[in-house]
Amino acid sequence: MKNETVYMKEAGTMFIREIEVPEPKENEVLVNIKYCGICGSDVHYYDNGRIGDYIVEGDFTLGHEVAGEVVKTGSGVKNLKPGDRVALEPGIPCGKCEFCKQGKYNLCPDVIFFATPPVQGALQNYVVHPADMCFLLPDNVSMEEGALVEPLCVGLHACRQGNVQLGDSVVILGAGCIGLAALLSAKAMGASKVVVVDLFEKRLEFAKEMGADHCVNAAKEDVFEECRKIFGSRGADIVIETAGSPKTIYQTPMLARQGGTVVLVGIAVNNDLTYNFGQVMSKELTIKSVFRYRNLYPVAIAAIADGSIDVKKMITHRFLFHDAKKAFDTVISDAQNVVKAVIEL
Question: Is the pTM of this model over 0.85?
């Protein structure tokens, strides 16, 4: 077996090198990766060489949205066998800290997460992974869909944090992959009116196709005026920010109703932001934030399998493994048209 791996050495560079095929330990499986989605965090590392305190040093492999086929199992693995098709949840928590014991393992301070320096990513032919973090894909769920389980979980977690309920009104700021995942999740949870805001018309067209009730182009329209037309003076029950822009983060409390909820998902480049806490306090808003997700892979896979959520609609660009650099360059240079790019290995 040949294990080709895509590496970056510094921002904007990418090359392929062959490395050894890893051997699974007792409770691990060896997975032949078939599809890898390109996440916004991957793009930040590729374009800037860092995200905050996480800095790429030396040869580094990107990729954490992956699905593949089990080819070998460790001696202690009972629930998987060679030939099984699986989606890999990319984080490996310690299982022992207070957060893990509370079921909030996404907050584990010692989590090992694909493509988060110094942990190498999964954009390679073969990886080993804990069997209990590999989830079987039903026959009617493709490998390509399996690679999109990860971003869907972020959208689902955002809606759970916002406690989206039947009949709720929701504003989603940002129509990238995570924004659209939040849209699909909100509609599946019963939201009656979902408004999506973005700067790019192409992304808003996708949002409309995926079930958005209203779309607002912030480059051409006054977001507050358009939302007033839709909601009246009441505002939205839940506002979900996915763009990570200081401007859209600042807008969130003004768009929410009295007693409403704001969910912050997008990560701004600058940690020091101006925020209107006067609005928060006068409206008695609840502010929630999102860090990855937890306990949602089975839920996301089931939602895809039964047709409640169609993640395939998010894919706008497909690339082959040896065109990985072209894939990343395209995501950056054609941002207004790329919603989700997927690499087939």
Answer: yes
